[in-house]
Write a structure and sequence with these properties.
The protein is an alpha+beta fold. It is about 35% helix and about 30% strand. It is built from 5 helices and 11 strands, in the order αβαβαααβββββββββ. The protein has a 5-stranded mixed beta sheet with strand order 1-11-6-2-3. The chain has a two-stranded antiparallel ribbon with strand order 4-5.
């Protein structure tokens, strides 16, 4: 019983590490394909107008209106507390006319009022098998991009993930060794920047 529990714990840890590595690999690919633009969102800056500007640039270049905005946790904190964003909430859009900024309603404030907004709380551990150093995977980034609702091999979405099957996790193989056994995680998917002109990556600060 003890050996079974130990094996399950090792497999669970292995799968977790594989997921962490997969996330880091995907972000490396996306960042290499989409250059970052620095934005300051202080008391005199309007984050909504800034994002609208990136949306218009993308739409003018592609004929496709961006429909996704993904905030890192830090960027979301800066956005929701920005003075000009708060002013829009209390004096503008009736859907967000409350003291609390609701994520589900934020998309209606942008150039594309049907924008889907998300906040990423995913973390990466930059030092596996040693002292843990964890941080938000998106750091201080905001991603603005177009994603097709009916994705296929030919659509113009900014990013795509190609898989051998619907579930990229193929399972865990156990390989006998002379002294014990080896566990191998099978992962079959690859992320690509399909259309860099349909995406913008912002790095935001307050000053």
């Amino acid at each position: 019983e003890g050996s079974r529990i130990l094996r399950e714990a090792r497999v669970q840890n292995l799968v977790s590490q594989a997921g962490n590595s997969r996330l880091a690999e995907t972000l490396t690919v996306l960042r290499a394909g989409v250059s970052a633009s620095a934005e300051i969102w202080g008391d005199t800056n309007d984050p909504i107008a800034d994002i609208d500007g990136y949306m218009k640039t993308i739409a003018d270049a592609n004929g496709l209106m961006p429909n996704r905005v993904v905030f890192s946790l830090g960027a979301w904190s800066i956005f929701k507390n920005a003075l000009l964003v708060k002013n829009r909430i209390t004096a503008g859009n009736p859907k967000t006319k409350s003291a609390v900024l609701m994520l589900d309603d934020v998309g209606s404030l942008f150039l594309n009022p049907n924008t889907v907004c998300q906040v990423s709380t995913a973390i990466v551990d930059t030092k596996l098998r040693s002292t843990s150093v964890k941080s938000n995977a998106l750091a201080s980034e905001v991603w603005v991009y177009y994603a097709s609702e009916g994705a296929n091999m030919f659509d113009n979405s900014a990013f795509k993930t190609f898989r051998v099957s619907a579930n990229p996790f193929g399972g865990v193989r156990v390989v006998p060794k002379d002294f014990g056994e080896k566990h191998i995680v099978e992962w079959t998917e690859a992320a690509y920047v399909n259309n860099a002109a349909a995406a913008a990556r912002l790095t935001v600060t307050t000053s």
